[in-house]
């Protein structure tokens, strides 16, 4: 058996750390996926309507819910509150609801417009 150089040992340790972090990230993301599926069912039961999509927002742990393919509703993970209306980013004063809901409907380059409108300081968007 050949002995490893210090550089090879360091590289092997770095790869091992990355694999452990990747495994942990995967393990912790699985419950989130299950929770989102349960949340979708709970919102559907509460609204009595089909949920087209459900996405976690970076705002106060709220989820953005598309119901009936045309309504935007915000809720928390326990569906203890349903917010109907526009969500405004307090720092930028941008209407998040318009950027995520209307731009994709109105324009072929809507993803770029949405990202630029929501995240102008990050190289023109995400």
Structure characterization notes:
The protein is α+β, with helices and mostly antiparallel strands and 126 residues long. The protein has one domain (6-118): Nuclear Transport Factor 2, Chain: A, CATH 3.10.450.70. 49% of the residues lie in helices and 15% in strands. It contains 3 helices and 4 strands; from the N terminus they run H-E-E-E-E-H-H. Strands 1-2-3-4 form a 4-stranded antiparallel beta sheet, covered by helices on one side. A hairpin with a 6-residue loop joins strand 3 (71-75) and strand 4 (82-84). Helix 2 (96-106) runs antiparallel to helix 3. It is elongated, with a radius of gyration of 21 Å. The N and C termini lie far apart (48 Å). Residues 122-126 have low confidence and may be disordered.
Proportion in β-strands: 15-25%
The total count of helices amounts to 3
N-to-C SSE series? HEEEEHH
State the helical fraction.
Answer: 40-55%
Number of strands: 4
Through-space gap between termini: 48 Å
Rounded mean pLDDT is 75
CATH class: Alpha Beta
Which strands sit side by side, in order, in the main sheet? 1-2-3-4
User: In the CATH classification, which architecture applies?
Assistant: Roll
Oligomer description: single chain
Largest sheet: 4 strands, antiparallel
Radius of gyration, in angstroms, nearest whole number = 21 Å
Structural class: alpha+beta
Q: How many domain units? A: 1
